Amino acid sequence: MDTIIIAQDYEEVCGKAAGLLAAQILLKPDCVLGLATGSTPTGVYKRLCTQYAAGLLDFSGVRTVNLDEYAGLGPEDEQSYHMYMRHHLFDHVNLQAENTHLPSGLAPDQKEECMRYDELITSLGGVDMQILGLGVNGHIGFNEPGDAFSEGSHTVSLSESTIAANARFFPDAGKVPRQALTVGMKAIMGAKKILLLASGENKAQAVRDMLCGPITPRLPASILRLHPDVTFLIDSAAGQLLPQI
Ligand code: GLP
Are the C-beta atoms of 85 and 35 separated by less than 8 Å? Predict the structure, then answer.
């Protein structure tokens, strides 16, 4: 069932998302979490770290699979998603390193790496709970708007709007990699539960199109409406263009 929660602000979005993730870990200590990067989930990870430090959560059996990684960036690169995950979560909780997974941005054969990553997700039994952010152009993971929904993991050329949106994490826009490896819709839609987080007025149009527009690969997140258990956690700024009910 689709659930749409309009939270007051970013803090409330993060509090609710962290609560749902914590419940997932408590209910299934060896669960597989699908993790996202970007600025939106940072407050969620912060809360999980706090709960861990307070002795309320145990990550020792948890497995994680991230959505994506920039092509050409290694795990030690400050702007890589490997490093992001270490900074925001992995270095602060008792996740076992061998249980955390991201696609490699340095794989010599990206096609092979994408196949390996899809097989890995399958071998873990799929994702129990998938966290997603939302690109300003409606992308999820790095599944950019296009003519068709991608199925498996693949290399993608980033759109100009994504490069511009993510430039803030790099010393200058010229340093943003032009390509990334991302899981496809099969892995995302195969998750048992999905939590889509959106915060801030710059996401308002994408939120409206995702929830009220046609289901189309031109707005990749619109496909989530076909998932049987998705929660859209949106703050009032991101939800400001939604019809009032
Ligand atoms: C990147 C990531 C996405 C993320 C999106 C939105 O492009 N690949 O997974 O959802 O940015 O990021 P933010 O939360 O910073 O707006």
Answer: yes
Domains of the chain: 3-129+142-235 (3.40.50.1360)
> How does pLDDT run across 157-182, given as a tens digit for each residue?
999 999 999 999 999 889 999 999 99
Cβ 21 vs Cβ 129: under 8 Å: yes
Local structure of 107: helix, strand or coil: coil
Report which ligand 1 atom has the smallest distance to the Cα of 68.
8
pTM: 0.97
Which of 144, 166, 227, 235 does the annotation list as catalytic? 144
For ligand 1, the distance from its centroid to the CA atom of residue 208, given in whole angstroms, is 17
Burial class (CB in 10 A: 0-12, 13-18, 19+), 105: buried
Half-sphere exposure of 188 (CA within 13 A, CB side): 32
| Range 108-117 average pLDDT | 98
